[in-house]
Amino acid sequence: MKKSVLITGASKGLGAALAGELAGAGARVVMVARHADELEKAAARIGAYALPADIGDKHAVHAIAGAAAALVGPIDILIHNASTLGPTPLRLLLDTECEDFEQVLQTNLIGPFRLTRIVAGAMALRGSGLVLHVSSDAAVAAYPRWGAYGVSKAALDHLNRSWAVEVPGVKFFSVDPGEMDTDMHAQAMPDAEKSSLARPADVARRVARMIADSERIESGARLVVTP
Questions:
Q1: Which residue of 54, 84, 95, 123 could cross-link 91, Cys pair, CB 3.0 to 4.6 Å?
Q2: Percentage of the chain modeled with pLDDT above 70
């Protein structure tokens, strides 16, 4: 895969696993995450580029796009994996501060919107490119205390569909990876039985196959990773 890939939320979990999977297939990968030390160690392990930044910071997105293109050339594949739950333990909506709700939207929805505007615009001019949004089952089912996160992912799915009808020549799709053994899942559900959770590396392999077969996927589709 001789492609240039930009992945957010890439220091651990599914993001790091996807970066490793795609880099192993020959892609030039730029990994974005907030925590520099963790990110740089992950990037060094797989031979990718580390770009410490916060996707939720409106002033960072142009720098992210510019630095990534300088490192690996025009971006062919943009993967929005960065997410936040908001404060944990998770709270009922009635107990959620407006500022916390807004921060979840900034990271999970507004940041991806801003970055896609920049990167997909260049893709559209070239007439090719792929933007993948990592979704969740919380986007389609309402769970108590998952309100802010679920709302952000439901909106992300619809943003994905809206991009697809407005930007011809660029492929958009969202992926629900299922429940995985990640730090985020442990924060949300500390009592969950880990043996029942998928390994991020296994999910990454399946998502990488979707990317490889993306010509067969309808733009705007929402896909679910199955075991």
A1: 95
A2: 100
Tell me if 77 sits within 8 A of 19, measured CB to CB: no
* 182-200 pLDDT tens trace: 989 989 898 888 888 999 9
| Each residue's pLDDT tens digit, 154-170 | 999 999 999 999 999 99
For residues 63 and 54, give the distance between their C-alpha atoms in angstroms, rounded to a whole number: 11
Q: Report helix, strand or coil for 29.
A: strand
The catalytic residue positions are 149
Residue 172 per-residue DSSP state: E
Chain centroid, CA 33 distance in Å: 11
Whether residue 89 is preceded by a cis peptide bond, meaning omega within 30 degrees of 0, is yes
The three-state secondary structure class of 6 is strand
The predicted pLDDT at position 132 comes to 98
Quick one: pLDDT at residue 22? 98
What length does the chain have? 227
